[in-house]
Amino acid sequence: MKYNDLDIEKWKELDINVDSLWLIGERDKSGKHANVYHGNFIPQIPNQLIRRYTKENEIVLDTFMGSGTTLFECEKLNRKFIGFDINSEIIEYVNTQMLHSKFNNFEINECDVTNEKLFIPLIEKSINNLKSPKVQFVIMHPPYMDIVKFTNKKEDLSQISNLSEFVKIFLKAVKNSIEYLEKNRYFAVVIGDVYKNSEVIPLGFYVLDAIKRDFKTKLKGIIVKNIEGNRGKLGKGGIWKYRALKSDYFIFKHEYILVFKKEF
Prior knowledge:
two-stranded antiparallel sheet
């Protein structure tokens, strides 16, 4: 790996998780991290990915920024950051969190990242401001269809209930994002499955298949991460176990981290 600052000679001491199963007890609550937004992911995910696939001062692009988890990790790890989100309220929250920070190598944009005409001028302005023609890593943590509706905007992916339509529109976000990713660099999609009409919809698998079909990439990892701290699902004796036993389903306690290498 030539795309990180890790001292491979001290590999035994590195706390980089190279397993395909990540069992994480609780989310990191240090610094600016706070569980204030439904759907924000745990900081340990971007922390691990950023350290493994980037060097200091390289640019990380997050096209579904949410409450700023990736930004706060970039601040801590000295990586430049470009973030996009469609939710003006959460963007205001993130900007407020950064008001008194000495870290200024970041750009935040309000935009529907599936809209090429809106996305291109903003990403080009941002990479120009950060003095780089491309970004070096992309992370995407989209809504899981309409399980949680983040805004009322019709362009919001969280308004889409149809699987085929969701995958089709999400691929536009992937295309727009990785167009600005350097060749032979990496991007990750953090996504979970959904339960609709009494059936599991393996959303992560559909997204994985679509990306492999539409883009020249190599799949480098399918990481399964437990979500032990999921609200309302803690403990073997909880109401969720009762509901599952009374019915015929299993309790979701996982997400996928899909890691790809761009080859074009």
